[in-house]
Specification:
234 residues; single chain; binds adenosine-5'-triphosphate; Rossmann fold; four-stranded antiparallel beta sheet; alpha/beta; 2 domains
């Protein structure tokens, strides 16, 4: 469903993504693991055209997207849950969710999806009128996920959804990812929390200084020596 082939991304002279290739098949949860500054967020930004690849191809759902505008990529069915949530703090929870449906116009469908999101996250239903910036970190993460679901995507990309959350909330977020997948969603997950990510992913890639150095099933990665030493604390 999503395929990157030999993608190179630079920030000025700094060559951040180096011939990066990866793919996510329909219905899979695939995780991208990597230490600080490995290039995980840059991979997400490159997929969404927020940073341009200087070469390589990015294909989503049968279409080349490497030259498309971010809004058009989202319209084609790819949603992003960005790093550090990036909700709209001065807008209400309801308005944030409505923003997620900006690519759509059918009001009845949008209302149905709002209801669906509130079923997944009852906390959001209780707080629809609250200003998003006054929600707790965990609630904001739920809102960011809910906003992505509001675009009725075919696939969701999540950049470190566990960042800054308590262990209990991390579990809630990961349970939600499994729930979304059970409804048929394809998910690409970028995480530093390798043990949690591998416990729910089907496959994973390991990114080191902008290069994929390893890919395997999540089960095999959990017992791989390099992964254990570098990402699972030995
Ligand atoms: P973290 O887990 O710490 O967020 P990451 O794997 O997501 O790390 P990136 O944010 O993709 O890493 O950054 C990869 C490298 O690119 C880093 O060395 C970073 O300093 C550099 N970088 C990121 N954004 C820019 C930018 N806009 N201009 C210049 N360098 C950048």
């Amino acid at each position: 469903m999503l395929r990157l082939v030999d993608v190179n991304t630079f920030y000025g002279p700094s060559h951040v993504l180096q011939n990066l290739s990866l793919e996510v098949e329909k219905g899979e949860i695939v995780c991208l693991l990597g230490a600080n500054a490995a290039g995980k967020t840059t991979t997400m930004k490159t997929i969404f055209g927020l940073t341009r690849a200087s070469s390589g191809s990015i294909n989503f759902d049968g279409q080349a997207i490497e030259r498309k505008l971010t809004g058009d990529i989202v319209k084609s069915g790819l949603a992003l849950v960005p790093e550090a949530r990036r909700i709209f703090p001065r807008m209400s929870v309801r308005e944030n969710l409505e923003m997620g449906a900006f690519t759509r116009s059918n009001k009845n469908e949008i209302a149905e999806d709002m209801d669906h999101v509130c079923q997944i996250f009852p906390r959001l239903r209780e707080r629809l009128k609250q200003l998003a910036g006054t929600m707790s970190g965990g609630e904001q993460q739920m809102l960011a996920m809910g906003r992505a679901i509001m675009s009725r995507p075919k696939m969701i990309c999540m950049d470190e959804p566990s960042m800054g959350l308590s262990p209990k909330l991390v579990e809630t977020v990961f349970d939600t990812i499994l729930r979304i997948r059970s409804e048929g969603m394809t998910i690409f997950l970028v995480e530093q929390n390798a043990s949690m990510a591998l416990s729910l992913a089907d496959r994973g890639y390991v990114l080191q200084t902008g290069k994929i150095v390893l890919t395997d099933t999540a089960k095999n990665l959990l017992t791989n020596d390099l992964v254990r030493q570098a990402y699972l604390g030995g």
